[in-house]
UniProtKB/TrEMBL annotation:
Any one cellular-component term (Gene Ontology): cytosol
Name this protein carries in UniProt: Esterase
GO molecular function: sterol ester esterase activity; triacylglycerol lipase activity
PANTHER family the record matches: HORMONE-SENSITIVE LIPASE, TRIACYLGLYCEROL LIPASE
Species whose genome carries this gene: Aquimarina muelleri
Signal sequence, renumbered to the chain: none
Domain named Alpha/beta hydrolase fold-3: residues: 73-273
InterPro entries, per database record: AB_hydrolase_3, AB_hydrolase_fold
Coiled-coil stretches noted in the UniProt entry, renumbered to this chain: none
């Protein structure tokens, strides 16, 4: 275990991050205290930006100061469906925009418990439909961390079902793929996960599901269809309670033809590790995301 990871764990303990995820019901109002819905130039590293409303979401368009590649990074942030975006979300996507010279749309979608998964996924769908009016789908890359990774998967499943054009690829950072959290392997990982805990995470998913089963594909893409998916770049972590379900997802995808999954595994890493700047491994993870995007742009 690195010194910086030990310091991160200490900081999380002082912040009582893990403890906040042991509550049922989850204190979503307290979680929202870290929300930043309107960024500033400092947070966006001096990049240009403007916000607009698409359907019932606030979408912030961020673009580089120099020549644009013509690619769009459609980004869905995490936050258990109940909060966000946060400072880490804005800073990370801004670094990606700067180093890939691509535009990004940050989707600040409606949150649970005021809104259920049906409304949330409809918002992501409508934003994508607006995006393909401006950008060619082959130049759109979906990015999502945690439940954001969930949302880009359920969006793609719907696009394929409705025979609409799909994006170039998906970059899913430690996504939540099964809201039921019934995998027996989760219990042992809960003991070493420094951020999430099963009780609070499941509470948030219940708030979001409404009357739906937690195994409904609309909130648990693991139970949906991955046939003919565009390439998926999946970031996983050994110290994350969501990993056991991601492992099942990888097995499911690898059995399919014409669907590829590229796994980037963070050994002894926590949830959303590429978004945690204190860790040297996080910097490498972020550079990997940037290299995936740049490779896609150069091969266009």
């Amino acid at each position: 275990m690195s010194l910086r990871y030990s310091l991160l764990k200490l900081a999380l303990k002082i912040k009582r991050e893990k403890k906040s995820w042991t509550k049922d019901p989850i204190d979503f109002l307290k979680k929202r205290k870290q929300d930043i819905h309107t960024p500033n130039l400092r947070l966006l590293l001096g990049l240009k930006f403007e916000s607009k409303k698409i359907y019932n979401s606030k979408v912030t368009h961020i673009w580089p100061n120099e020549a644009d590649t013509g690619f769009l990074l459609l980004y869905c942030h995490g936050g258990a469906f109940i909060y966000g975006p946060t400072q880490e979300n804005w800073k990370t996507i801004s670094k990606i925009v700067k180093q890939t010279r691509s535009s990004a749309w940050v989707v600040d979608y409606p949150k649970a418990p005021e809104y259920t998964i049906k409304t949330i996924t409809e918002n992501i769908y409508q934003v994508y439909l607006e995006a393909i009016k401006i950008f060619d789908p082959s130049k759109i890359i979906l990015i999502g961390d945690s439940v954001g990774g969930n949302l880009i998967m359920t969006l793609t499943q719907r696009l394929l079902k409705e025979e609409k054009e799909t994006p170039s690829r998906l970059i899913a950072i430690t996504p939540m793929v099964d809201a039921s959290l019934t995998n027996p392997k989760i219990e042992s990982i809960d003991l070493i996960d420094p951020i999430l805990s099963k009780k609070g995470v499941k509470s948030a998913k219940k708030m979001c599901a409404g009357e739906r089963s937690l195994k409904d594909p609309l909130i648990s893409p693991l139970y949906g269809d991955f046939k003919n998916f565009p390439p998926i770049h999946l970031f996983m972590a050994s110290n994350d309670i969501l990993t056991p379900d991601q492992e099942i997802l990888v097995e499911k995808i690898e059995k399919l033809n014409k669907t590829t999954v590229d796994v980037i595994f963070g050994e002894k890493m926590p949830h959303i590790w590429p978004f945690l700047p204190i860790l040297p491994e996080a910097k490498k993870g972020l550079q990997k995301i940037i290299s995936i995007i740049n490779l896609a742009i150069n091969n266009e």
